[in-house]
Amino acid sequence: MFRTCDITGFKVDLRSEKLIRANAVFAVISLLLAVVAAILLVFTRYQPVHLLGAEWYYRLVTFHGLNALIFWIIFFEVAGLYFGSTVILNTRFCAPKLGWFGFALMVAGLVLSNVIILMGKADVMLTSYTPLKAHPLYYLGIILFAVGALIAVILFFGNLMIARREKTYGDSLPLVAYGLMTAAIIAVITLATGAIIYIPTFLWSLGLIQNIDPAMYKLIWWGLGHSSQQINVAAMVSIWYMVSFLSVGGTSINERVSRSAFVLYILFICLASAHHLLTDPGVSSAWKVWNTSYAMYLAVLASMIHAFAVPSSFESAQRRWGYNKGLFQWLSKAPWGNPAFSSIILAVIGFGFIGGTTGVIFGMEQTNIIVHNTIAIPGHFKGTVVIGTTLTFMGITYYLIPLIFRRKIVGFKWAKMQPWMFFIGIALLSISMIVLGQMGVPRRHWDNTFSGGPFTYNFNPAVDFFWALMMLGGVLAFLATVIWILIVVVSVFFGPKVNGPADMQLSISPPAPAAKAHKGFEAPGTLVLTIIFLLVFMALFFLNWKWLAATWNVN
Amino acid sequence: MSLLSPVEGWYEKKVSKDEKMWMIIALILCLSMFVWMIMWHVYGKQNPSSITYRTSTAEFGKLSEAYIKKYMIGADNGVPVVRPEANSEVFLLAEMWRWSPVLVLQKDQSYKFHISSRDLVHGFSIQPVNMNFQVYPTYDYVLEFKPTESGEFKIICNEFCGIGHHAMIGKIVVIEKDEDLKLYGYENFKNAATTDSTVKNEVPLTDAEMALMGEQVYTLKGCGACHKIDGSSQIAPSWKGLFGKEEQVIENGKKLSVKVDEAYISESIKDPSLKKTVGFENTPMPVFPLTDDEIKQVIAYIKTLKN
Fold it and tell me: Which of A217, A268, A471, B109 would be a feasible disulfide site paired with A46, CB 3.0-4.6 Å?
């Protein structure tokens, strides 16, 4: 039932390993579907090409959203949850048959929803705001997928219980497993919210329920839609800590702080549905201010804590390895040739500087007026989900290929380059979209010339430059994703087998030596970096409020 | 060690000086941002309103129609133009796929907008000033706007509302003085509220009068959102040269050819899904409750639109 990993020394349950592999494979398939749609969408919005017709444009926006934001992310997270609850804890999988049942439901959901979308029966966007109605099987597909995911989460807790009872780890959960556990708890809340909204909507599409209130729908749907992004954040941050350990032998300089930050996520992150209702009727300003700020920004505080704790875990370990010169020797002597490491560093930077800053600013009650439903919004979440989560998942895959699939990475040179290319591509794409949005360009809109309308509107001529930049970024990111998929597929199916530590192309560092007691700063380089981040944030903050102040008065 | 259980004594470990500093900075930032939003309600001039009324799509449609009928001063590309008084209530209707009416506002005056949708969720986005709000059916959102600059503004829809979403664009004109109306070609529009043109008249109307009333129905009911009169047919067949034409339609899945005459137009308005014109199957027409008189007027209007 078990094999002992000859590289890490962990006990690996072979049944768990198979499930991890299967879920990872479907994650990659979903990502492929998502990016093929994405590149077609980029060339449709890029007006000089204007590739697709209106019908297929909206169809593929729906398709892209579902595959990228739901299927790719959640399949990968299930693989991650299984990994975190068995391999890391040296324990067995509690109910593999149920695991396969959940997996089958998820695959069925994926196939069903995608087929219905491509048949043109569900051109409703991922959000499917009522009274926009899709074919019942579309909702059913999503429900099946969600039930499958819920089973996976329950199995995760089952594995934790076994590990605890059989004492397969020390007194406390390892930090990575702890972070994944918070992700799983948020997932339960999220999926329950999903059930509350998708089941009535499914019945409504069958004609069994008369009416779904559109504002109520939006409120609860985002309890699913936004909270699910916080599963990603918790899972992503856990992986950041994991790569810190694998690549330089580091861990959070104070685990109590990091763990408390994870708890803050659980407590406050679910209020974020409000981010999507800031310019809506039906809810009061008091409600908006309290909820959009996650109760006085306590969940943002959690992210800010990780923003220090993650880089400082690298810095502290590197300093203990002797890279102690100046503020940044720890960074210049870091294992940049390790694609997992570079992925994670780039993900941290992109998530913080692009996704994080815009997320907080756009999510404030009043500033939301100047960005709501503009293309700046997808620009923002390209900065969180794509540079942050997706690049993180891509990076950790470079470890999963040798450790879980037991294959060498084919085209390792390409693998070293891929994270950079992806980062530059998405950064260009994301920043261009944010700028376009600030100039009023709407999201999910087929024709910037408003053809067929009674009037027309010409955006600020500067948009042309940013459309070109966005297209360029989209192409780069698309190519980088294709390269990653090729590396993964070729390695997993045709790569040479890994027969021991000698075949590891990515270094696995032993734990960094213990620190000598000292009184000064533990991570001065990180402190400087976080202060720079703070200044950038403040600049963007005041810029946005200045723009808001220049608009008409509204009350 | 993040993959292993934490080292002995991890729980008692003191937080390092730099991490403590950062956490305090972060906490101050978080609390300030929270206070900032509240203070903007006191000192800021842009705050989303908390006033919403429950309505129904039928009720708001009636309110909007009555409002336009009363205050309409003309039409712009098939969309009625209204010039509301300062500090008055303004009714703006969003529907697939138009904003009605076009508004002529005075700079630095306040207007209480009532915005709602007749069908789906829409996105109210004024450009280039770039202010964005959400519009729902059955919710009447009251937003008090005070334009602080003059010029021509467009309302675009930024919430997906079906295949014609991109064509949903409206207009707001902000003027400083009456002469500014010339800039937009509105100088000949009536200043006061229009006289009620639906007064029953014993004398039978002439074709020209019928057509004029038909044009008003076209504008008021929003036919122009899809049916253009300039010969372009993106979402629905243009009305230009339509009368008397042979059209390919689909009835019960079968293709057949029909002549566009009084009977066919009348039937198509009453039951749009019965015969769908080939090429426009994906943009089915909604049912508009028109009276028989109004249908006759529309037909008279279509007859005048020759190639």
Answer: A471
